[in-house]
Design a protein that fits this description.
Layout (H helix, E strand, L loop, with lengths): L4 H17 L4 H8 L3 H13 L3 E3 L5 E3 L1 H23 L4 H14 L2 H14 L1
Helix pairs in contact: 1-2, 1-4, 2-3, 4-5, 4-6
Length: 122
């Protein structure tokens, strides 16, 4: 199933927050993505409807198995692309921004080639 880039960003952010804090809250998502609380409410509603997250009565958010799989894939792409870009001389700030843009549109073939290249370099 094809998922929108913004949904991928939300899921990736949720995974990062879960790793960093041990929990996921809407306010932390809003801060991290620099969006409004109503934007997060709309996005989480859609993600919940599509089965990517669950929300407890107290507002705690959890990734479903499917949501986690998507978040982990995007996170891996981001980390790998960041590593690749900094390795070829791109500043960390620019590499982080570019990795975030590229991670969504890069073909699997190109991503695998970048992974192979990094493995050969190590």
């Amino acid at each position: 199933m094809k998922i929108q880039k913004s949904a991928e960003d939300y899921l990736e952010t949720m995974l990062q927050l879960k790793r960093e804090k041990g929990y996921i809250r809407s306010i932390d998502i809003a801060r991290h993505l620099e969006v409004t609380k109503p934007s997060v409410s709309y996005a989480t509603k859609r993600l919940r409807e599509n089965g990517y997250i669950t929300m407890a009565d107290d507002g705690q958010i959890e990734l479903t198995e499917e949501g986690f799989a998507i978040a982990a894939k995007i996170d891996e792409r981001h980390r790998t692309l960041f590593r690749f870009l900094t390795k070829i001389g791109v500043s960390e700030e620019t590499a982080a921004e570019d990795a975030c843009r590229i991670e969504h549109d890069l073909s699997d073939e190109t991503f695998r080639a970048i992974c192979r290249h990094l493995e050969e370099e190590d």
